[in-house]
Design brief:
Shape: globular
CATH architecture of the largest domain: 3-Layer(aba) Sandwich
CATH class of the largest domain: Alpha Beta
Helix content: 40-55%
Strand order of the largest sheet: 9-8-10-11-12-16-17
Number of domains: 3
Strand content: 15-25%
């Protein structure tokens, strides 16, 4: 078929098109021919209109594009899976109510493979090709420190949802980075306060530390010692151990710890590394000889579900979100909704992603669009956002000076609890620490930024 543009186009018997002038005679044959061509034109116009309708509707729909970078395979894969599920859950909640400022939210995700150089390429592709409004996510602090440089160079807001190295909000802070889960300084400040209180009931003297040999692991140990000194706690270090991330065998480190005999073993592992270390250490009786103390990522539900009743009682652990604390309606609703959606309970990484989507939505709602980056930065600075992990009477907020979310921290002990299967242990006997008591002092921030 062809449109009639003043010449008649007719299919010949051999399948080729033949062009001729339209006859001016008004005979019956010519009239039928003209009528036939009018029908053709009408049909083509209708078809073209129908074909363009979905495209015009898509063009009219306004989208906030979010470029996420999460690990989806290997030991850290559960963190990525939970983060994506929680982010999508938050987006569905928001989009079902009409979105924000006339926009719907859309998430793109690429497996980071836990590789900084690869994640940098993904971030650049998101910005240059996908035209995302926000960079989002990241589990490893090593990846986070690499992606924040891309964010800075391109003036693209990066919402960090899980990685915890304090360097991102102190030493390497740049205007377009914001973190919506607690950092290692906050966890270690709470840990130092816990150890200070513990001296009153269970006197201890010696510490040892084991953690992954990169920024996240080193930051925890440095910050714990800094806070112990700041709070006037006396201690002696008898050992430091630095396995690589995702090390397959911790036996040499376990035997060294047994020989050094610390009163308290401080751990800086996360994810599958925590599970692997505890499982490998149990046959040696390590947890009967020293107190295992893991204030930042030890209390993740992943550990409870992977170890069941084999998880020793009395380990002292913390995390960035807990299924059973605080016992508020908001936290129960969040946990139950995630479970119904996925068939599993969320790791703490999930709540960070959930928080990140709501932070973006709140900022865009205030500014009116996702394109005014500088206005969005201002909207995020000082933002108050009520989250599942907030106890009654407290609302999380983003510190304008560091772009770090400020939150209450809870540390507990492993106790028997089978209310969240397949786990047979959960945390209890909670110690709760005020958010403002856990912030890095001004002089600490100034010292770090001068280096």
């Amino acid at each position: 078929m062809a449109l009639d543009l003043g010449y008649g186009c007719f299919p010949c018997r051999n399948g080729h098109l033949e062009t001729s002038h339209i006859s001016q005679k008004r005979g019956l044959k010519g009239g039928r021919r003209m009528l036939r061509h009018k029908y053709v034109v009408v049909i083509l116009v209708v078809l073209l209109a129908l074909f363009q309708v979905p495209f015009s509707l898509g063009a009219d729909e306004k989208i906030i594009k979010i470029g996420a970078i999460y690990p989806m395979t290997g030991r850290p894969g559960l963190y990525g899976l939970d983060s994506v599920d929680a982010a999508e859950m938050a987006m569905e909640e928001i989009n079902s109510k009409g979105g924000v400022a006339g926009y719907k939210l859309e998430l793109l995700n690429t497996d980071s493979k836990l590789k900084p150089d690869y994640s940098v390429r993904v971030a650049k592709r998101y910005i240059d090709e996908d035209k995302v409004h926000f960079l989002f996510g990241v589990v490893s602090s090593g990846v986070g420190l690499a992606v924040t440089e891309v964010s800075k160079q391109n003036k693209k807001i990066f919402i960090g949802t899980d990685h915890a190295s304090t360097r991102l909000t102190v030493d390497a802070l740049q205007p377009y980075y914001f973190r919506v889960s607690n950092n290692t300084f906050q966890s270690m400040a709470a840990g130092a306060l816990y150890l200070k209180e513990l001296k009153q009931t269970k006197p201890w003297e010696t510490l040892a530390y084991i953690g992954p040999d990169y920024a996240y692991g080193h930051d925890q140990w440095d910050e714990l010692k800094y806070n112990l000194d700041r709070f006037g706690v006396k201690y002696k270090v008898v050992g430091e151990y630095w396995p690589k991330l995702s090390a397959p065998d911790y036996t040499p480190f376990i035997t060294s710890i047994m020989n050094d005999k610390p009163d308290i073993l401080v751990s800086g592992f996360w994810g599958g590394d925590t599970v692997a270390f505890i499982k490998q250490a149990q046959p040696y009786g390590l947890f009967e000889k020293t107190l295992y103390f893991h204030p930042d990522a030890g209390g993740n539900y992943e550990l409870m579900s992977a170890t069941g009743s084999e998880l020793p009682l009395g380990l002292v652990l913390g995390a960035r979100h807990h299924l059973n604390w605080p016992e508020t309606e908001l936290n129960r609703t969040y946990v139950d909704k995630f479970y119904k959606r996925t068939g599993r309970y969320p790791s703490y990484a999930a709540e960070g992603a959930y928080a990140g989507i709501y932070a973006i939505a709140q900022a865009v709602e205030k500014v009116g669009n996702p394109n005014d980056t500088e206005a969005l930065v201002k909207a995020l600075e000082g933002m108050k956002i009520k989250l599942p992990e907030d106890p009654e009477g407290f609302t999380s907020y983003i510190d304008p000076a560091t772009h770090q979310i400020v939150q209450v921290q809870a540390i507990g002990e492993t106790i028997a609890n089978d209310k969240f299967p397949p786990a047979k242990r959960m945390l209890g006997n909670w110690k709760v620490y005020k958010a403002e008591d856990l912030l890095p002092p001004k002089e600490y921030i100034e010292m770090k930024r001068k280096k």
